[in-house]
Amino acid sequence: MTGGIPMTASVTLIVxxxxxxxxxxxxxxxxxxxxxxxxxxxxxxxxxxxLLRFHRRHTHELLLNGNKTANHNDTxxxxxxxxxxxxxxxxLLNQAETCxxxxxRITLKQFKTLxxxxxxxxxxxxxxxxxxxxxxxxxxxxxxxxxxxxSNDNNQLFQRYQSIWPVTxxxxxxxxxxxxxxxxxxxxxxxxxxxxxxxxxxLKRRMNHLAITAEHHEAVPLLDTLFDQVSHIENSNNxxxxxxxxxxxxxxxxxxxLFMLFDEILQQLGDELAIKLPEMxxxxxxxxxxxxxxxxGH
Length: 298
Description:
Distance between the termini: 84 Å
Helix content: over 70%
Radius of gyration: 25 Å
Number of strands: 0
Largest sheet: none
Shape: elongated
Number of helices: 9
């Protein structure tokens, strides 16, 4: 009997150890599933930003041309992008965790207003409304990504992301201000010319800051080449409307580059967390489009 006590204790200890190990493995498995699900939502949100940016470009051209271009004479018919935005928004609402659903419902309501009322907007209001919608999606990405990093208990990675996030928002804010300055630009107004140059300088500094913070150093010379185009645009003619159009298309190149950097950040974070992300391709990130090749469209 005395010899059986240690054996019983050993068996009990082994059983308890196995139960603890099984519990730990189950917890880790659930944690990994949650992490994967959250990154799936992040990628969906990133796709939503792409659709909103495409919708902004399309509606900008339609408003600029009086809704007579792009075969959209019937203003009662929703744009393809509008349908895709609402469909993806509902899908993300269904995937969202219960505690986050109210934020998704608010954002989805904003999308519905945007996709149904854009035809009544001025060019400036259309830009601002889309910018606000994109910013809301960025905050949803930030909230989900923060949850991922905190649950992963990687303080160093979390601190690095926290240093990148405000730089990204600052660059987005500067892009919006630069686009507003474009709409106000006039060759006859030195004040408006100075304002455009001022906003462009701020945008360039913040874009460079983002590239360096994101450790995407090869993007810095790309940005230098990109921003060198502005002086050529201003000096190319004295027609305000043509200059504004060329500057707007330049801002599209800047926007493409900014989101290329943002996607690089997401890719880096996914790699750190051992999450396999789909490759996010960018039409304009590899080359600079010369001014003479810029044309109306997307």
